[in-house]
Write a structure and sequence with these properties.
Layout lengths: L1 H29 L8 H31 L1 H6 L5 H16 L2 H10 L11 H25 L1 H17 L11 H8 L6 H9 L5 H33 L2
Helix pairs in contact: 1-2, 2-4, 2-6, 2-7, 2-9, 4-6, 6-7, 6-10
Length: about 240
């Protein structure tokens, strides 16, 4: 019974990823957008992009969810408020790790082992989580007092997901191109995906983006430290 529950829990955690991948592959075949890319390569590329996107999204939203669940404990006991961020990040890491076997199976099945820089995954995970945590540091204190922040965040994420060239190749002209170029995640998640795929990237852009993410993390942690106590005191009124 215990193993059955564990299996079902893992299945439900993987279901959103599998559903997104299946829908994207179906639409790609339906509208013939693969061009010169094989189905196997597209599937693996999509898996990596969605895994890193979900890691960023979980690092962003999970602390907000965790803070709402334990708000009564936060009010009643003087806990270290950084536990909110730590718990959210641990959840994000777990959700990422359980998807890795699926990625490895896809790589082996489609025989594309030699072209991947899998050793880059832990380093890129840290950068991705730093980005998500930065956003969470700004929004978690607000979400404790304003439920609209918590409920609107997933919608904001979906908009940015669709505006990020993960399901499709980046557009060069038109309205979608403007969305791509104006979307900050366009310069992050696809670049990390390409690094793992072994595609040449703009190394200068990578260092600039990494420096910006780490700078944003430093600023956001200071903001979080100064505001989370006030937010908890507010919900206690």
């Amino acid at each position: 019974m215990r193993y059955r529950r564990t299996f079902l829990s893992i299945f439900w955690l993987l279901l959103p990823l599998l559903a997104l991948v299946s829908a994207a592959v179906f639409l790609s075949l339906k509208f013939s957008v693969l061009d010169d890319t094989s189905l196997g390569h597209y599937l693996i590329k999509l898996l990596i992009g969605l895994m890193f996107w979900q890691l960023m999204a979980d690092s962003w939203l999970e602390p907000m969810r965790f803070a709402r669940r334990i708000k009564l404990i936060l009010i009643s006991y003087p806990l270290d408020k950084n536990i909110i961020l730590m718990a959210g990040n641990l959840s994000a890491v777990f959700n990422f790790i359980i998807k890795i076997p699926i990625l490895l199976l896809a790589i082996v099945y489609f025989d594309q082992i030699n072209s991947f820089n899998l050793l880059m995954i832990p380093f890129l995970m840290l950068l991705t989580m730093s980005l998500g945590t930065s956003l969470s540091c700004f929004m978690t204190p607000l979400s404790l007092g304003l439920l609209d922040i918590r409920y609107s965040a997933p919608l904001i994420q979906y908009f940015f997901l669709l505006a990020t060239p993960i399901f499709y190749t980046q557009f060069e002209s038109g309205i979608l191109a403007l969305l791509n170029f104006g979307n900050p995640f366009t310069y992050i998640i696809p670049m990390y995906r390409d690094m793992i795929l072994g595609v040449d990237i703009n190394i200068n852009l990578f260092f600039i983006v990494s420096a910006l993410i780490l700078s944003l993390l430093t600023i956001s942690l200071k903001y979080y430290s100064s505001k989370i106590g006030l937010a908890i005191a507010y919900i206690g009124k």
